[in-house]
Amino acid sequence: MLANTIKISSLLNDVIVLSQRACSLIRRTHYTGNCQVFCKAAVVPGTTEAHKTSKGQDVDYRSVVTSADLECQSLISQNLRALYPSAQLVGEEDEALESMEPNLNHFRPELIRRVATNNDFLASDKLQELREQRHPGFLRYNQDLLNLSDKNELYENTDEFLNDEVNEEDVCFWIDPLDGTGGFVNGHTEHVTCNIGISVKGKPLFGVIGKPFLEGGNIKMSATYVGGVSIGMHRILAQDISLNGSDCPASEQFKLVSKAQYLKPFDKGHGISTLPIICGAMNRNQGVMNNIIDSFKPRSVERVAGAGNKFLHLAQGKSDLYLNFVPGLKLWDTCAGDALVKSRFGVFTNAFSEHLSYEKEGLHTPQDGLVACQNPL
Q1: Which segments of 258-301 does DSSP mark as H helices, in order?
Q2: At 130, is the pLDDT very low, low, confident or very high (cuts 50, 70, 90)?
Q3: How many domains does the chain have?
Q4: Where are the strands (E) in 180-253, listed by range?
Q5: Containing domain of residue 173, as a range?
Q6: Contact at 8 Å (CB) between 122 and 260?
Q7: Quick check: 248 pLDDT over 90?
Q8: DSSP letter assigned to residue 87
Q9: Is residue 363 over pLDDT 90?
Q10: Is there a domain that residue 166 lies in?
């Protein structure tokens, strides 16, 4: 193996462990009630949905950042920088962390690597087998994407698709440590996710989305969704033993409940029908978007909060289509979800049917809207 190459299985296993630990931190913050809320942007007096900062000021819930956001960003960023020093990293809370002393309690790259190696959630030989199985389907899928736009090529050739390594210098991590902060502060934990996207040469090839709160109220259980167009999408369930109230070694904090469950590509016979299920925003005060959604005559509109949660909703096959032409999303919101939708051979483009570009330099705000669906429109 060349000096600057890294195995994809090792990379993903490391990120899975970091996602699990971030989800544990989010759960612990919620259940202990030890959550500080800070004003991220302007203070908005008299807002109808407001929260107090540590100074007692009212702030718009959409502009807040919590101690959990910052702690998770610190946990993920510190360890990724130590494990992959040649890779690039962009996080939603980078600016806020610059003015803070790093929490060295989170800096444990050797532990992260040891846990990842011991669990081996996604074994290298299994991933290689999946690449070979998925390659014929990928060729058809890739042609569908190129039919939408000649800018949509994900891999330059077959060897690149089948390769189990990437150059570390080509990797950029896109981190939204706690997506759905407004809902988290309001107690709507079902919408919260931890998003870690991995772009290679500006293309969204891999993504990990952690769900710290599952339906049914099991406070110890979390789900991690991981995938990429070459390896498919997988779900991992884990139990957080540290929430039992007893001390346990950090290396034994999680008990694997289920091995990685592979989710097959979307059914290509299931196109966008005249009655699709559309994943819509919780905010209903978007007149233009609501008119566009209504024009599809949807069977139903599933109101889902949180960018990562919306993309996961679609990637799980719970909805057929997601549209957003309202500015505001950032690339750290979209990268992980983009990769997961593509991992099931779904479509994730701008309004001109072109892939989003994940380059560290330049604007981090998609300018031309967003269309995500199971199959081409």
Answers
A1: 287-295
A2: very high
A3: 2
A4: 193-200, 203-211, 221-228, 232-240
A5: 5-263
A6: yes
A7: no
A8: S
A9: no
A10: yes
Residue 55, C-beta contacts closer than 8 angstroms, at least 6 positions apart: none
**Nearest CA among 212, 242, 235 for reference residue 69:** 212
Could you tell me the strand order of the sheet in which 277-281 lies? 300-304, 277-281, 321-324, 370-373, 347-349
**Residue 269, in any domain of the structure:** no
Which range has the worst mean pLDDT, 144-153, 244-253, 333-342?
244-253
Tokens encoding 245: 């109230």
User: Do residue 16 and residue 123 come from a single domain?
Assistant: yes
Tokens standing for residue 196: 């870690």
**Does residue 98 belong to any structural domain of this protein?**
yes
d(CA 160, CA 338): 19
pLDDT in tens, 14-24: 999 999 999 99
161-187: b (≥16 Cβ within 10 Å) or e: beebbbebebbbbbbbbbbbbbbbbee
How far apart (Å, rounded) are the C-alpha atoms in residues 73 and 249? 23
Give ∠ CA 242-30-252 in degrees, rounded to 5. 15
Same domain? For 228 and 286 the reply is: no
Minimal CA–CA distance to 152: which of 323, 291, 346? 346
Q: Calculate the CA dihedral of residues 348, 350, 355, 361 and round it to 10 degrees.
A: -120
SS3 16: helix
CATH number at residue 356: 3.40.190.80
* pLDDT digit string, tens, across residues 30-57: 888 888 887 765 323 333 333 444 334 4
- In this structure, the strands spanning 300-304 and 277-281 are parallel
Largest CA distance in the chain: 59
